[in-house]
Amino acid sequence: MNPDASLPAPPAHPGTLPSRLPNVGTTIFTVMSALAAEKNAVNLGQGFPDFDCDPRIVEAVSHAMREGWNQYPPMAGVPKLRQAIAAKIAALYGRDYDADSEITVTAGATQALLTAILCAVHPGDEVIVLEPCYDSYLPAIELAGGKAVPVALEAPDFRIPFDRLAAAITPRTRLLLINTPHNPTGTIWREDDMRQLAELLAGTDILLLSDEVYEHMVYDGQLHQSVSRHPELARRSFVVSSFGKTYHVTGWKVGYVAAPAALMAEFRKVHQFNVFTVNTPMQHGLADYMADPQPYVQLAGFYQAKRDAFRAGLSDTRFQLLPADGTYFQCVDYTAISDMKEADFAMWLTSEIGVAAIPVSAFYTGGRESGLVRFCFAKRDETLALALERLRRL
Ligand SMILES: Cc1ncc(COP(=O)(O)O)c(C=O)c1O
User: Can you give the pTM of this predicted structure?
Assistant: First the structure.
């Protein structure tokens, strides 16, 4: 007799299941990085530095480990790190978040974004997303059962289309996702944009999720317009940032979210069953390192020098430069060189010229074609010089 006869019959196809994210396949970042490695191309595709972080931050984390900070920290994060984050936001943007109830440390900005979306969006809710946008936004909305409502920003200046934004709002709109400084375009929100946004949202109960991971990379003396500077916006906002970007440690995956206490209480309900908490020694090390504001205060100058050198080099090529007010990305128009589609041009550039870039079309649902690719200039000066030498051949 079959001993398992009392068990339910196994499913017809035990190795398969209906996908929660049926439209997600291999991303262009993976494809381009693999191609760059295969062709030995200079990889200006994926957005991460090819230089090391400050040894003092590594020492601060090692010190924390040696001191025995190796067990679970509090769910919302190590208190001294939350206090350092609150103090930084108060000093830079003039808003006081309570470190106990309004700041949570996350496993990178990606988890902060997912958790904020999961706690704010109910099945059937609409979420307005400005495209082009970072690739985690749409799958996160889908996982929450929400409906993404894309509003396109348009080349070459990618300014906020407030008329189309207003037209996209319906009684089902629950959340608006914004990103400044903006990946991939390098544009930033200005004070007047924030004022118009506050006017648009006044009288609605729409929440705002503001992705500010490039907050310390704003150039030419301009100010980062954190939504936390604007009381009418801050009271309805989750504000997200990432230590990975600020301290050249993208692999550490530590970020944070700031939000008013009532929103944060809901965020933490999801966070505690999502990751529960974030690794302890990193948090202690980051808190100690944050005691000196210079690394983040000087970051804009550091990257501005790279941006200027890269733009000066590109001005000798047939690429047309788009403005780059923030982030470590430079978008270029290649239509004077080729009429290929963006993905084809990026692959050709990688294979034939030896420089990897990302097509901007990859950041739009439906892949809008504008003849643009994105380069990342968070690279050593030698790396950028080699890339420029190759691009000049075009
Ligand atoms: C706009 C934007 N948001 C979020 C992230 C993710 O940040 P983290 O690595 O801290 O998860 C990135 C990383 O590239 C990004 O460009």
Answer: 0.96
